[in-house]
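Z., the sequence and structure:
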Amino acid sequence: MKIVVTGTRGIPNVMGGVETHCEELFPRIAGMGFDVTLIRRASYVADNLSEWQGVKLIDIATPKKKAFEAIVHTFRAINAARRLHADVVHIQAIGPALLAPYARLLGLKVVFTHHGPDYDRDKWGRVAKAILRLGERMGCAFANDVIVISNVIRDIIARKYGRTKRVHLIYNGVPAPDVCDYPEYFSQLGIEPGQYVLGMCRFVPEKNLHHLIEACSQVDMKGCKLVLAGDTDFEDDYSRRLKEMAREHGVVLTGFVKGRKLHSLLSNCRCYCLPSSHEGLPIALLEAMSYRLPVVVSDIPANLEVGLQADNYFPCGDVPALAAKLQALIDAPVARVDYDMAKYNWDEIATQVAQVYREI
């Protein structure tokens, strides 16, 4: 069976939750014997790969413009899928899902994965939010099958569009942790094991990293530092202000990191914090949990669905409450926590997605 994937910037080593999802999922799908082609946005990849871990890669030129790059790329990718005689086009995210009816018009079977209501993200203007809502509607109306990554999203599409049939709850996953040390990298950053709080996500407004910086400025850090691992796809006023704010408060900025650098940061931090106002099902949080880190997260529905203890949550946007949670962790000895990660197993998730393909 030939599967063509679109709606992602690309794999491997491309920043973003959808990109991490695809990087983990589709090599496993290919390993099951499916013929998988993933179509990348050429402006996001610096390699010349035509295949990676069994997944065929095709790069399509797309203008790197936040407002319309996804829709242009998806249109070109669907046309490519038809030329490739795809059995299934798997569309990732609600923006690209705007073209689900076009794919059906071309005679293609469509699976649509809803990663979250992106129109709630602060970075989008009124017109963009309207288009994203329309994309969600088109995906739910025209996809043969819909995959949702959380119960929160399943409830949204049932309530808004009455879509309850051929909707599959398949969670995001997390790989086994690669616990390691990287003394040279820590020396370069000027940090010590157990002596830093980690924030790990893209530098966009809805992640509320400015709240994390504000909260840490109210905490007696006792020699600990705040480390922000990530960056932005499009440098804008928010990302520039955030980086300036970080520098003013002595925050360590790592930029986008993967591999050993990221694993060492997760292996050795005191706690992980995600103060965001919007998530689908945050892979970064699941990664932190896989490393048994104490976590502090906002009480938005997607984070609540993970099912942490009440002490792990704080009211979204309440900086003093976040500061109090962080102070308690700074005051306590360095600890590790055992979480139940069974339902976030990528091998099981890949098996569930493969079954959707077979049924379609």
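The mean pLDDT is 94. The two ends are 11 Å apart (CA to CA).

Let me know what you think.
H.
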